[in-house]
Amino acid sequence: MPFSSLGISSSLIEALGRQDFTEPTPIQKEAIPAILKKKDVLGIAKTGSGKTASYVLPILMNLEGNTLSKNRHINVLVVVPTRELAVQVREVFQLFNSALTTPLKTMAVYGGVAINPQMKAMMGVNILVATPGRLLELIDSNAVSLSAIDTLVLDEADKMLNLGFKDEMNRIFSLLPKKRQNLLFSATLSDDVDTINRILLNDPLVIKIEEEENNIDLISQLGYFVSEEKKGPLLRYLIKTNNLRQVLVFASSTFNCDKITDKLQKNGINAMAIHSKKSQQARTKALENFKEGKLRVLVATDLISRGIDITFLPCVINYELPRSPKDYIHRIGRTGRAENPGEAISFVSPEELHHFKIIQKKMGKWVTMIDSETLPLK
Predict the structure, then answer these.
(1) Cβ neighbours of residue 72 under 8 Å, at least 6 residues apart?
(2) Which of 201, 206, 272, 322 is the most buried (most CB within 10 A)?
(3) Which residues, at least 6 apart from 241, have a Cβ–Cβ distance to it below 8 Å?
């Protein structure tokens, strides 16, 4: 099925072709026609499945040629949980925006940087991609108005509601016009998303690409039994012995991210940490270096990883296990994309063994385990 059959304009199809996108993904096949018809949509599909383009393309088409709001009244609001994802979503809008007859003004706003330049640049913005906290700061400063919003997008809705954004989101909802199109996209479906679905969406099209969520056959999984104190030596041993490059390591907290990174650096391994307590400049630099292959290891928390989208990422390591099986699949799904094989390695301490068994049972796959005591870690 070509993009033309979904109602996409020829100019946008040409832009898709320049990016080597010839066939729509499953989420795009269902979401694009519905959004073009101004229906509400709840889309559940894993990261890397094309969710962003599934709303960017029809939103641009719906705006093109219409009478748009002026001054500081934006038309489309996309709310995301992290700065990295805000930048990434804006880049997708910009990628296709240039194909329009009259390009629209798109902007990303987030905390961690000075607010004054963002306030000054807000005039005439049509599409705003924002994190909740910075959006409310701009509203309180009268730099932006939500009264003319025609389309609201919540990207990674599950994470936003699970990670302490609830009060901020409730305030944002109260400032929006009641008549609008609502689009919710998420990698996983949780009770919070179900709740917000009932509150926000009007007779929505619900799209669940479950087969994509569980398509992990290309990922080679391996686990290591290891005590907590030997996880650091095991990580360094695997990276050096297997000459691993471009490794994404998951840790459970910002403190552990920094501790793991510090140990890697002291042992001559080029590594950087990326988490919410890092400055925006440090986060941007780390992510750019990692994507370009200049950085060997990136150590990240689950939240920040939402802005890491690399097609050919070869290896993911769970230094610590995530809290849920869904998050585990989401983590390892960072590799093994676009029909390319990938490797996922998990460190399992005695305290985590029962939890890892639950993860494997939910996943429907059993992971080959190796006892790290047999390895010359020193």
Answers:
(1) 122, 123, 125, 142, 143, 144, 145
(2) 272
(3) none
Q: How wide is the angle at C-alpha 200 spanned by C-alphas 199 and 202, nearest 5°?
A: 105
Residue with tokens 């509203």: 139
292 burial (CB, 10 Å; 0-12 / 13-18 / 19+) is: exposed
What is the rounded distance in angstroms from the CA atom of residue 183 to the CA atom of residue 31?
Answer: 10
* Domains, the chain, with CATH or none: 3-210 (3.40.50.300), 214-374 (3.40.50.300)
Three-state secondary-structure class, residue 90: helix
Answer positive or negative: Cα dihedral of 92, 98, 104, 105.
positive
Band the pLDDT of 275: cuts 50, 70, 90. Answer: confident
Q: Bigger pLDDT: 73 or 310?
A: 73
* Ranges assigned E (strand) in the chain: 41-44, 76-79, 106-109, 127-130, 151-155, 181-186, 205-208, 219-225, 247-250, 271-274, 297-300, 315-318, 342-348, 368-371
**pLDDT score, position 196:** 64
Using DSSP's 3-state secondary structure scheme, residue 99 falls into coil
184 contact partners, CB below 8 Å, separation of at least 6: 41, 42, 43, 153, 154, 157, 193, 196, 197, 200, 201, 204
Q: Return d(Cα 260, Cα 228) in angstroms, integer.
A: 12
Chain mean position to CA 249: 16
pLDDT of 342 reads 86
pTM of the model: 0.66
pLDDT band at 66 (very low <50, low <70, confident <90, very high): confident
CA distance 241 to 357: 28
